[in-house]
């Protein structure tokens, strides 16, 4: 689904109608300094509308293994955050540039390129902790409180700029942000600096409480500053909205020294996932295979062997992939990442029976695990067991209702068993997630016309139609 930049801006501004000048007088009055002038429920409504626009236009990373790692890490950090509203939505964008952002309503966005810039798990976690702290301190709402009359529109423009940076061009996105702030540059920048320092301070405490070395945050800042210098006029997008200065690094170093520094810096799990992300980032399976062949020859580490096995799988060098995977499994037969890679290899090799047998056993050990479930659905699909795909994904959708790929696969499986009602319902959920409300409504209406609809199911569909109307209003203002 392609849109022009102008169209995306219009769509986003519509989704932010809650904060438009026409609605400014209807917003709650500012209470204490922490409450802001936008309630948590209104922020949640805003975030849900915005993320639908993002999903429609940004290339999302379709890799449940990587997504699950980030989501688990985010959940661990959130436990120790000061969030009042813990309804979090993670969006992982398939983009090799460094970027991460937080949007009101619990939206955390991460570019897959964050792995490329974060050498350790602590550095990666520090970025997530920083973004969680922006949410917990409600910095967007505070910005509205600072300039109640002018900043609702400015906030809409700022979020539009974030969307542009996430989906198209970083320089265009920054131009949009700065253009919207032109009326109050000095005040806005000063407020931004205090926000960044507060997010740093609270984020480092979150890191320490979660069991990470808080010094990972200033180390990440130093690395970003070096990257910016090397890249010259095109710094990472993250630095455009989170400027790093020498004083900020020094302040972070001083604060981290006051906290416990005995936490986790890195882990083998992170090294493996980072290697996986690096293979995916190359977008050239043959080049990745050659790169990790050389890497293993120079250093036969676990991470390099995993990279060689994964890149060999993706470039269809299946005997070589199995050879490397056998060595990994010999070292750690119970490591889930290796078992999942074995299942992926069997699926590529056309052996879904072996994959499904292993994945069923793993699902008993790890109930509800996202990558296991999604791979098992693929295995059932290859075996022609479409009803099992439907049953599995229908149950899994309760825990992962925001997974667009899940609903897409569920619609396909329903079609293969000739469950037309199921096709329409799954497609309606898919279209709602990407903000295509008209199409979602059409599928719900078609579902109502199917023969054999029971009263209970009819009531559920009619309620979903009402929900769809509310979503439409949030998108259109």
How would you portray this structure in words?
This protein is mainly α. Among the domains are: 5-257, no CATH class; 274-349, no CATH class. Helices cover 70% and strands 3% of the residues. The protein is built from 25 helices and 3 strands. It has a 3-stranded mixed beta sheet with strand order 1-3-2, with helices on both faces. A hairpin with a 3-residue loop joins strand 2 and strand 3. It is globular. The two termini are 22 Å apart. Residues 1-36 and 177-191 have low confidence and may be disordered.
Features of this protein?
70% helix; three-stranded mixed sheet; disordered N terminus; 25 helices; 477 residues; mainly alpha
The structural class is: mainly alpha
Low-confidence stretches: 1-36, 177-191
Tally of DSSP helical segments: 25
Mean pLDDT: 83
How helical, in percent, are the residues? 55-70%
Q: What's the alpha carbon Rg, rounded to whole Å?
A: 23 Å
What oligomeric state is this?
single chain
Strand order of the largest sheet: 1-3-2
What's the end-to-end separation, in Å? 22 Å
Q: Kindly state the number of beta strands.
A: 3
Strand content: under 5%
Main β-sheet description:
3 strands, mixed
In N-to-C order, the SSE pattern is HHHHEEEHHHHHHHHHHHHHHHHHHHHH
Task: Tell the overall outline.
Answer: globular
Topology:
Blueprint: H1 5-15, H2 21-24, H3 40-57, H4 64-79, E1 89-93, E2 100-103, E3 107-111, H5 114-117, H6 121-136, H7 139-146, H8 151-167, H9 170-180, H10 185-210, H11 216-231, H12 237-241, H13 246-257, H14 268-282, H15 285-298, H16 302-314, H17 318-331, H18 336-348, H19 352-365, H20 370-383, H21 386-396, H22 404-416, H23 420-433, H24 437-448, H25 455-476
Parallel strand pairs: 1-3
Antiparallel strand pairs: 2-3
Helix pairs in contact: 1-3, 1-8, 4-6, 4-10, 6-10, 6-11, 8-9, 10-13, 11-13, 14-16, 15-16, 16-17, 16-18, 17-18, 18-19, 18-20, 19-20, 20-21, 21-22, 22-23, 23-24, 24-25
